[in-house]
Every structure is written in structure tokens, then in C-alpha cells.
Amino acid sequence: MTIVDFEPRHAEAWRRLNEAWLTKFFVIEAKDRLVLDNPGSVILDKGGHIFMAEADGETVGCVALIPMDDGGYEVGKMAVDERMQGRGYARKLMLACIEKARALGARRLYLESSSHLTPALTLYELVGFQHLPPSPSPYVRADVWMELKL
């Protein structure tokens, strides 16, 4: 498995991977649709980064680093193909985010999640994310807020 930077060829996999988990557990919300349909203009053109996980010639995972006004980055849209879960791909994607954010001089990583996504929350805690009090979110499903100070 390798972690690579997003390229236009990844657009369909980016959308497919995220739509899979969103429709399995929740619904696709307006902000989801904006980010999934426009990763270039919504994330990359604003100084963000998207990492894709590839294995055996197939794109099997993704995650985004979205710049925040305070100099930090939001970790968003982490997804791993259901067939590939449990193999450490999500952890490798998260570690790529942490490494990139540190290299960019970010003060912190931030994320919003759901208490229904126990494996994801466990991963975030294992790599050092701490829980925050609730804050406003564009996502109805968000009921967990976390940060990792860098």
C-alpha cells in the first residue's frame, strides 16, 4: 500500500469511497456534496491536501487536510474501502496527515466526527487526538469534536 497525493485521476475514487461510508451510516449533506464534487476548488486550491491510498493498482482509501483560518488543518473525508478495512490503511492515512501538517508548520489538526463511528474515534484517540467541547458544525451527524496539538 502506498499513500500518494490526489491527482485528477482520483476524483471518482474520492467520491465513491466517501459516498460509501456516508450512505451506509448517514446521508450525504450539502457540504459533503460540495467537497466530494469539487475537491480541487474546495480543498486543493485553498492550500489543502488530499491523500489517496493505493494497493495493487486500486485506490482504496482517502483523507483530506483542509486549511483553517487559525493556521491549523481540519482532517476530513477519511474513508477506506470496506473490503480493505482492518489492514492499517486508515492509520497510515492519518499519519500522512500528521506528518504533512507538521511539515507545513500547522499548530493543530481538528476534526468533527460521529459517536456512531467507533473504529474511527479509536484511531483518532490512539494517534493523540483529544476531545473538545461541542461547537457549531455544518454537519448534522457531528457530535464529536477533537484536536491534535502539533
Q: What is the rounded distance between the termini?
A: 26 Å
Which shape, going by the Cα principal axes?
globular
Q: Segments where pLDDT lies below 50 for 5+ residues?
A: none
By secondary-structure content and strand pairing, the structural class works out as alpha+beta
Helical percent range? 25-40%
Query: Strand order across the biggest sheet?
Result: 1-2-3-4-5-7-6
Strand percent estimate: 25-35%
* Strand count: 7
Estimated radius of gyration: 14 Å
Number of helices: 5
Oligomer: single chain
Topology (SSEs and partners):
Elements: E1 2-5, H1 11-25, H2 30-37, H3 39-42, E2 49-55, E3 58-67, E4 73-80, H4 89-103, E5 108-113, H5 118-126, E6 130-132, E7 144-149
Parallel strand pairs: 4-5
Antiparallel strand pairs: 1-2, 2-3, 3-4, 5-7, 6-7
Walk me through what this model shows.
The protein is of the alpha+beta class and 150 residues long. The protein has five helices and seven strands. The protein has helices spanning 11-25, 30-37, 39-42, 89-103, 118-126, and strands at residues 2-5, 49-55, 58-67, 73-80, 108-113, 130-132, 144-149. The chain has a seven-stranded mixed sheet. The protein is globular, with a radius of gyration of 14 Å. It starts with a strand and ends with a strand. Residues 1-150 form the N-acetyltransferase domain. This is GNAT family N-acetyltransferase. Keywords: Acyltransferase, Transferase. One of its GO terms (molecular function) is acyltransferase activity, transferring groups other than amino-acyl groups. InterPro entries: Acyl_CoA_acyltransferase, Bact_Acetyltransf, GNAT_dom.
